[in-house]
Write a structure and sequence with these properties.
Layout (H helix, E strand, L loop, with lengths): L11 E8 L7 E6 L33 H5 L5 E2 L2 E2 L7
Antiparallel strand pairs: 1-2, 3-4
């Protein structure tokens, strides 16, 4: 996406600091949101939408309740994320 300054902008989805796939050597790979290709073998299908999305990993949840407190649609309740209630 370009802003008024003609600068390229993107939403970073993930950063892999020790990438050794797809060729020799070690590199850092930056994944951006909004890939339009929709490849059948895509390893990051959650990166296809260009807009920000909610990410919830129940294995990393510590049960503090802060995410539920700020969720305007009540999509997070008792450590469970109901994406169907999400506004985006």
């Amino acid at each position: 996406m370009k802003d008024g300054n003609s600068a390229m902008r993107g939403l970073v989805f993930d950063i892999e600091k020790f990438a050794v796939h797809d060729g020799p050597g070690i590199r850092t790979t930056v994944f951006l949101k909004g890939c339009p290709l929709r490849c059948l073998w895509c390893h990051n299908p959650e990166s296809q939408e260009a807009e920000p999305e909610i990410s919830f990993d129940p294995e990393k949840c510590i049960g503090c309740g802060r995410c539920a407190a700020v969720c305007p649609s009540g999509a997070i309740h008792d450590g469970v994320f109901d994406r169907s209630r999400c506004l985006r």
